[in-house]
Amino acid sequence: MKKFKEIFRNPTFTKLFFANFTSHLGSVIGLTAFMFYLLDRFSEQPVYATITEMMYSIPTLAVFFLVGVLADRMDRKNIAYYCDTISAFLSVILLGAIVLGWMPFIFFVLFLRSAVQKFFFPAEQGILQGVLDKEDYSTAAGLNQMVMSLFMLFGNGLAILIYWLAGIYGAVLVDTITFIISAVLIKKCHVPVEARLPNGPHKLKDLSFSFIMKDFKLGMLYIFKHKLLMSLIGGFFVFGVVNGGFSVMPIFILKYKLAPQTYEEYSILLGVAFGAGVLIGSVIASMLTQKFKFHQLIVAGLMISGSFIILSSFATTTWMFLGVIFFAALGLPLVNIAIGGWMPSIIEPKMMGRVQGWISPLMMLSQSLTLGFIALSFPAILSIEMLYWIVGGCLLFVGIFYTFILPKFMKDTEGIEAAAVS
């Protein structure tokens, strides 16, 4: 806790932290409230709710080659600021689109807003790397993990409450206000020029298609050049498998095995159990980063979560399942916080955006492949228990792989920090 107090004495970090919080809050409230609005208004057409979820994820595949390049070549503070400002403007347009009731236009606005928001995180991470000391990276990662766990616990519930009290127009208005608050906080940040423009000033007209593709390729070559970094980022492919599996597996085991009649009610408790596990695990992981090495925490987290995910498939009662899932969630922050604290210390500042730009599409690819695999194999080929064995087994496999690989590649750290990329 002492570390948390110390890091908040940095005014730039404090503003960035709350800007990230409010920006993410706006995304959660708007998307969740709009999904429930569609389910209420078009109860016989659930496809609309599915399309809404797609409008949040698909833009990643449309802009992934741009986000990292812009975060490294343009002013990072301006990128983060304009992401929030444009998102607020698009939220106002969304209000008008909802009044008109023209669904294609509504989905188009949701797509645009989601695409704009994808540029925020790489730029914000690049700024953080420039305004924090290396020993504060893991503390910042721990705080971000705790915020994410709070969203798991209360985000959807808060969005539903706002929707119930203020309707869809009130929810989108709150959405707009959160983006405006985030933009103001970003605007007030004092960010050194070297953190904003690590590669020197560029103009949009300088970023031709060939320049962007060359820069994007440079990010890929940078990752491949450094085995430690490549190993860590390769792990995100497996995390995408876990995200894809866990987006449907808990509901499946409740509906088809443990609580066929009351699975909807228990799904709420499932979110509480998982979110509470991640929140408590975040606090524990933040303290352990001061006592253990990053690769030890990553391996421990993977082994704990993988073991309990497999164990959860043997649960015979709903309450037993919720308890085991709680312990599975405890291990995940060890992995997330360790990687979040480690990567900024081994990535050259002027390459941070392009490296971050590879993570989201990699996870999205593995997540989509996993969902496609589940759609084809369950329940015709695989039982629900087998799905848990596969996902848990993936984590255990990566944990064993990292046990041998990460210590061997740690010597690359100094090479990465000293590398010069033109």
Automatic annotation (TrEMBL):
Alphabetical list of InterPro entries matching this protein: MFS, MFS_trans_sf
Pfam families cross-referenced by the UniProt entry: MFS_1 (PF07690)
Keyword terms: Cell membrane, Membrane, Transmembrane, Transmembrane helix, Transport
Transmembrane segments: 21-39, 54-74, 86-112, 161-186, 228-254, 266-285, 297-315, 321-342, 362-381, 387-406
This protein's record includes keyword NADP: no
Location within or outside the cell: Cell membrane
GO CC annotation terms, alphabetical: plasma membrane
Topology of this chain in the membrane: Multi-pass membrane protein
Protein name in the entry: MFS transporter
Species for this entry: Bacillus salacetis
